[in-house]
Amino acid sequence: MSFSQLTYEVDGQVAVISLNRPERMNALTQVLENELRDAIEQADADLAVRAIVLTGKGKAFCAGMDMDELEVLPPDDIQRRDWMRPYDMNRRADYQTRYSYFPASNKPIISAINGAAAGLGLVMALYSDFRLASEKAVFATAFAKRGLIAEHGIAWILPRVVGHANAIDLLLTSRKIDAAEAREMGLVGRVLPPDQLMPAAMALAAVLATEVSPRSVQVMKRQLWEAPYQELGDAISDANREMFLSIQSDDFREGVAHFIERRPARFTGK
């Protein structure tokens, strides 16, 4: 599949998706939105890919929606059915929407936030499984400064990541925060010098691709994203079912064998 507003490369077992509108700070267009979903679905369907790294070309991660498109956006665009196409019928419907589909991917998604992540750029980062940031990264919700509201479930996910007090601050004021403050409030997991961001993201992706069971990663990612909807008893019952299946898997047998034999793992995901 070819793309016009992003680049897609596979490095070993890692798919690297780079938003590629640097002259517009990688602001989203409808073309880029569609291409991004297609790229993640392509990586998800590729059995050779075990992790996904998402970043931006140039100085920004993603500055949100392109203002030229936002200015003429029809009010009913948000409800278009083609934005809501199912991603994975085995996942919650909550994770099938316009931006919330990242958790429906079976592969872990690492956002390498190289610069500005504002508005929808921040939303995408929040729906990722890992967030690594450059020291030059800045973050803002931006919605209140545009006369908009907390879009695409950010009012649900942001407090779960940074707590209610930080979430209401970031949403209502739309103020910018730097990478250090983002790390302090738990918005990102690590902050790195700019030249170390992609190597660190690729190193993390390599660990996920080669050192741990892709089957385990897939199941645990689903458990973590579904847990907010579950009572403790439901989460335990789910874990018990998955444990029963995992003990019968090839990856479990390999997990024991490579430890006993003191050799690198050769997980198949089965």
UniProtKB/TrEMBL annotation:
GO molecular function: catalytic activity
UniProt record, GO biological process: fatty acid beta-oxidation
InterPro entries on file: ClpP/crotonase-like_dom_sf, Enoyl-CoA_hydra/iso
Source species, domain of life: Bacteria
Designated name of the protein: Enoyl-CoA hydratase
Species this chain originates from: Rhodopseudomonas pseudopalustris
